[in-house]
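YM 10:42: Major facilitator superfamily domain-containing protein 6-A isoform X1 sequence, as discussed on the call
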Amino acid sequence: MKATIDKELLPMKAHYFLFNAGTAPVVPFMPTLAGQLGYSPAVVGTMYTILPIIGMLAKPLFGYIADRYHRHRPLFLGGQVLTGIAFFLIMFVPGMEKPLPKVEFHCHQGVSDVKFCSEYGECVERNLERYYGNRTLQCQLNCEAQPFMWDIVCEDWLKNNTENCVANRTNSQLEFGASITMQKIENDGSCMFSMIPHDQGQIAGQNVTMYCPKEKEYFKSNCTIDCREDYLKEQLAESAVINTSSAVTMPQFWLFFGLLIFSWIGMAVVVSIGDAICFGILGDRHHLYGKQRLCGSLGWGVFALLAGLLVDHMSLGEVNKNYTAVFWMALLIMGFDVFASSKLRHTPTHLSSNILKDVGQMFLSVRCVIFFLWCVAIGLGTALIWNFLFIYLEELDKAFEGCDSSIKTLEGLVMGIQCFGGELPFFFLSGWILKKIGHVNAMSLVLFGFGVRFILYSMLQNPWYILPIELMNGVTFGLFYATMASYASIVAPPGTDATMQSLVGAIFEGVGVSMGSLIGGQLFESVTARTTFEIFGIGAFIIFVIHVCIQLYLQRNSKIDENGKGSVASASATASPSAPLETDIPKNTDHKDGDGFREVDLS
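YM 10:58: structure's back
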């Protein structure tokens, strides 16, 4: 048999591939980039609490505008342009100014040195020696000074030949210059020592010999060091963490957060209207949605992995990761997406006379309300994965790799396996799965999958062991998204497809992901990351049990009602037991079949 290609669907497939390829290099790394800029997990959680709420407001608003004024295509393309530009501009957001590195100055028995410690230990030593070679840096130290230290400085360094020496004995700070040879760095675990030639000191422009006799008290002082070298400052500076109260006073925070808001609005518009356009083109072939959406998983997986490799390659020898390449990737690929999407030809075939009324009737259906609550529950778990999984991995990675780690490569592999081993096969098989087990059973399976996945996360010791766990992303995202989008399209009254997809997406992200981000951020700070995943895992199992019990109760009551209604009701019972009965769908005289319902099997 000769294979046929539906050319009408090619631009849709290209859009899913390119849009996900354009966002994959940036979206997963935003929480870790925020941490690199200095923001605490609580700040990240707060931002990702507000962002989904912005999306929740944007999706129904622009979905309504698209349905009401038939402006699907312009809004769709405009959202892509906004997303690409907003992400690209994040590259220029400045980080927090790092404080001067803190060191210890030691002087005793005629030997002087500085001690500086870093959580990356040997890696920092290797970076400094590789970068500076045999250079000698002229540095200025500002040290805490006790009276006995001034005695040593005046008597042994300055030889009492400075007029201000006596007056300075009451000064709590001692400033002096020193020459530090970067080639002679000794490592002691997480701390390093660099010897200072004792005859190359300077105080107030006067050359001194920094000699401390062995019979005098040990000269040991906490200091800040300024060698006017940005690379040294970057390597040695402690990672200061900005809390929420401090962040809101910083202009660079609002620039960063503002660009994230614009990007989320753009993505919200593209995702909701894009799915509506896709279902509009598919018509009654809802089961084929997963096969269109799997192109997005393919694009996400390929370019997420490529982005992780590029970031690690460009960050060799650096404490902080260099994300320049991924921002350029996002801008260019989103440009190609705009071009491909401009080839889409879609005209809404059903128009609703009262969109808000028709969609509002969905909240009168018990099964639809349960569906919306299920979306919220899935959003809670999804938030933890989207916004905090990589932060957790980087915490685990510190014990294994240090500052030259391949953590971004690992994160790229994680996303690659999520897509190729998880999402892609499940999107491909989603139509068959939904036909076999029904939408409701699929919803229960997704909840159970989240519980297993989170418990396995909480047991991790080596971050690389996460890779096989990510195969479960097929259930927790691939099957979930296909179920959510398909169910929403089926129950949507004619002419409200974009509004309904937007509403469901808004409930999932604006309520579920938003709440999950807030709770996750607070738990990450109040308990350990490991405990946070354990709590969410137990919660997922509890919600799974509740969901199954409610559905069994509704199914039992539905059968009782059918037995009391006679042969007409009995005919409805032949549908899938997990399918919502037609009597659970709000009646609307604008529906396709004239009797208030579309003749579809919701299983």
